[in-house]
Amino acid sequence: MRIRIEGLLVLGLISSVHGHHSFDYHFSRDIGVKIEGSVKEFRFINPHSRILIDVTEKNGEIVTWDCEMAGSNTLARRGWHKELFQPGQSIEITGFGHRRVNTECSFGTAVLEDGTRITLNESRLAGSEEKTQSGSASGPPRPADQPNFSRVWQRRGGGGMGPQLGGPNRNAWVLSEAGRNALEDYDPVTDDPALRCSPVSIARLWGTGDLTEIRQEKNHVTIHHEWMDTTRVVYLDKKSHPENLEEYVLGHSIGWYEDSVLVIDTKGYATGMLQQHPGLPHSNQLHTVEHLSLDDDGLGFEVNWTANDSEYFTDQLSGSRSLEASDGEMKKYNCTHPETAH
Question: Within this chain, do residues 60 and 172 fall inside the same structural domain, yes or no?
Fold first, then answer.
């Protein structure tokens, strides 16, 4: 049996549902759903795990519901695993309905036949909360006056809900006429770069809830973002960017140290999106500068970035994120998008 309840509010269930897209672009907090059926399949994947539920309608027809949740890496750090839901299990799921597909939902809570209750944001680690910080330094020895970023990091604080459908595009003011035209041609639902398993941009990479590992070497710094298995190389032995750069979604980076700050200068971007939702396009003239400022205790840093684009922007844009040391283990992301097959 399927039950749809209008106006159900379960705000605590959705704070970290969507790793690559804003919740409101795909699901509605005004459409609460409760479905009862049996587990058909549990897809423990990134960027979103999914549970498929066979629901028997009143006329006897079996309809398969597809309910989306956080990615497998995020869930694994909460003690979830791919055998948590077994095919054939009786289950009741409460969540939120999809804006365009009547048989899709955002997972909130599941109740199994034996009464076991499983909530999306809960940790299932025995006797402890999720491990979040402390971390340990890694990488080769470095000069005493060089800041030590070599460890695993995670975003400090929660991810929030992100932009709401129909809400203001707070950064559109920076766009030139060419930039506004590019934005007009962009559909944040169907053109989202993450649907192609793209890392999107530096703004997106620093903003995810996934881990980031930084390793410092003599002539370069490697920044490995778990999100989309993205690796960035920052060349410390180059004073300028080569001429005739090959365009790449994340460009070409050179860097240097200024006391406790790592400065990253990037050019050679391919035309893309600095922000996915509601959308902020950039041309291949994008130039970004990131300042990674290490805390005094070495257990956190602030990244502040600026972006200039002579073709799409009329002014400089900026942003910031705060990260903290983590003892979490980096995992393969292996982006999979079953929704693109629909």
Answer: no
pLDDT, tens only, 17-72: 444 556 778 888 889 999 999 999 999 999 999 999 999 998 999 999 999 999 99
Q: What is the CA radius of gyration of the chain?
A: 22
The token pair at 4 is 């749809």
Which range marks the domain in which residue 43 is found?
Answer: 2-127
pLDDT tens, residue by residue, 231-286: 999 999 999 999 999 999 999 999 999 999 999 999 999 999 999 999 999 999 99
Same domain, 15 and 119: yes
Residue 242, preceding bond cis, omega within 30 degrees?
no
Domain boundary among 60, 94, 127: 127
The encoded tokens of residue 291 equal 């300042």
Instruction: In whole angstroms, give the CA distance from residue 342 to residue 334.
Output: 20
Please tell me whether residues 171 and 90 are part of one structural domain.
no
Supply the pLDDT for residue 284: 98
What is the C-alpha separation between 38 and 43, in angstroms, rounded? 15
User: Per the domain annotation, does 141 fall within a domain?
Assistant: no
